[in-house]
Amino acid sequence: VGQNLVTIKQVDSTNSFLKNLLSNSTPVPEGTVIMAEEQYAGRGQQQNTWHSEPGKNLTFSLLLKPHFLAVGDQFDLNRAASLGVYDALQPILGEQLKIKWPNDIYYGDRKLGGMLIENTIQGGQLKDSVIGIGLNINQENFPSGASNATSVKQILQKDYELTLLLSEICNCLEVYYLKLKAGEVDFVRNTYLSRLYWLNEVKSFESNNRVFNGTVKNVLPNGLLVIEDTKGQQLEFNLKELKFL
Ligand code: BTN
């Protein structure tokens, strides 16, 4: 991953750019990384936009071809990608780094970055996976609407070399991807769970206009989050159904 690196000065979204190449049947080798200095229409999860100060942060997409994965196991790609980013950042940032389900990267209770993973399925098989990653690295100020955002610079008070970190992320992510490929799925799932923000803690959630307290217990193979409510009932949620309060 990352051997074939394309850097673009300005693009709408690296995910859209890579998806366009694929839909035009342009041959793109697995592991290709498209990195942008500036995205003017960066996309986040759940139709959100992703803002990032030009030249300061990492905004890139990489292509995987996980033909070996069952469609029902595609959440394992979220796990591998989150763990790759985690492992690259952990030596720099330490124990406060966490993965927030499904694939946000948190430092304490602030968001350092996130991912938008877009998979194509053809003939009931996973075909291409575009893994878009946005991480706040050297940005110092955030708009008031992003009040829980933070960056490596805000944490360490110094600049960090973007391409160095990018190659570290690619190497770490590849380790987990190859584990999936080798069938070591349980290792990837258990490691993901052990890095999860709020695991076994009581927190407030909102679903269906109902606020409740519960404990994050597990993430199912298909990616659903399991929360145990105060009556001991285990409830399963997807991202659309749940708000963290
Ligand atoms: C989120 O936290 O909502 C996900 C943010 C994902 C942003 C990255 S930046 C590179 C890639 N291109 C995009 O348009 N989005 C992802």
TrEMBL record:
PROSITE patterns: BPL_LPL_CATALYTIC. Residues 1-181 form the BPL/LPL catalytic domain. Its EC number is 6.3.4.15. Keywords: Ligase. GO terms for molecular function: biotin--[biotin carboxyl-carrier protein] ligase activity. It holds the Pfam family BPL_LplA_LipB. GO terms for cellular component: cytoplasm. NCBIfam families: birA_ligase. This is Biotin--[acetyl-CoA-carboxylase] ligase. It comes from Mucilaginibacter rubeus. The lineage of its organism: Bacteria, Pseudomonadati, Bacteroidota, Sphingobacteriia, Sphingobacteriales.
